[in-house]
Write the structure tokens for this entry.
Amino acid sequence: MSVVILAIESSCDDTSAAVLKDGVVLSNIMAGQDVHRNFGGVIPELASRAHQQNILPVVSEAIRIADVKLRDINSIAFTRGPGLLGSLLVGTSFAKGVAISLKVPLVDVNHLHGHLLSHFISEPGVNNEHPCFPYLALLVSGGHTQIVRVDDFMSYEIIGSTIDDAVGEAFDKCAKLLDLGYPGGPIIDKLAKNGNPLKFKFAKPVIKGLDYSFSGVKTSLLYFLRDSLKEDPNFIKNNLHDLCASFQKTLTDILLDKLIKASKETGIKTITLGGGVSANSYLRETVAEEGRGREWKLFFPEIKYTTDNAAMIAVVGYYKYLSGMSIGLDSTPVSRVESF
Ligand code: KG4
Ligand code: ZN
């Protein structure tokens, strides 16, 4: 008998729904939220309101595109956390409502677990290779920067984590300082292509073990711009591409240093990237180049699966469902959680 999972993701500012049948993604619908663009960051209250508007059409469209009958759905998977509480509440409540009406079990999914298993998203007719366990996952997004050792579909351990800002935040704050708009990562990525990554140097943190820190490098850029603008009011305009390329290189170097260390310490050479920042072209090129010399087996998600999406939530939901794991209708979303 087939297993059909309907998954819902609403942890931040993307509303997404996906249908997975026997491990294959039949649909993955996303609705972004332009409403935050003018604010330079996600406004939680606006995000939850937009989720409320988007969730019904997004879920309906996912079911329509997948061409499955409601009675064929075996389970509803939903992102329980971490994320913005108001946003998570919308997805959680909707998932509960559907589970009640279809009389099927609810499966709660840790958003980060979703990113970790995003390499197992299979599309119909596409026979892509999946990573073998154990592998190291560099999880880089607007909310998280972690190195995770993944031992199995259900078992993983965070071995390094940021002690302050996430790397995506550093990209976004840099873009804000350069007055480039939000979200800044993709804009910096694009502008950096025509810049010299060696033109400017920014302070790199010295942090023990496999942990990261990104608040210092952001402050280093802030002071550097302040001093440079005193001498040349057009400094940013005249050096925009080089500033983006140099800042991006600094962030990439910081990420890579600890990834190399993690691979050496664990002896694991299968490495995956995930999360919004893993869309960054310079990061991908640099990790690929480094990996060639170190005989790493690398897995980069398709760009559409780097950012938040319900397909990855469906994959985790599928394996949890197969293991008989489900959660009661009294479950509540959780804004801060590393694993559950
Ligand atoms: O995973 P994600 O969609 O949401 C979170 O869970 O945070 O990640 C969003 C982050 C933002 O900080 C955005 O600027 C960054 O990913 N991002 C990028 C790129 N595309 C998205 N950063 C650098 N280069 C990119 N191409
Ligand atoms: Zn995410």
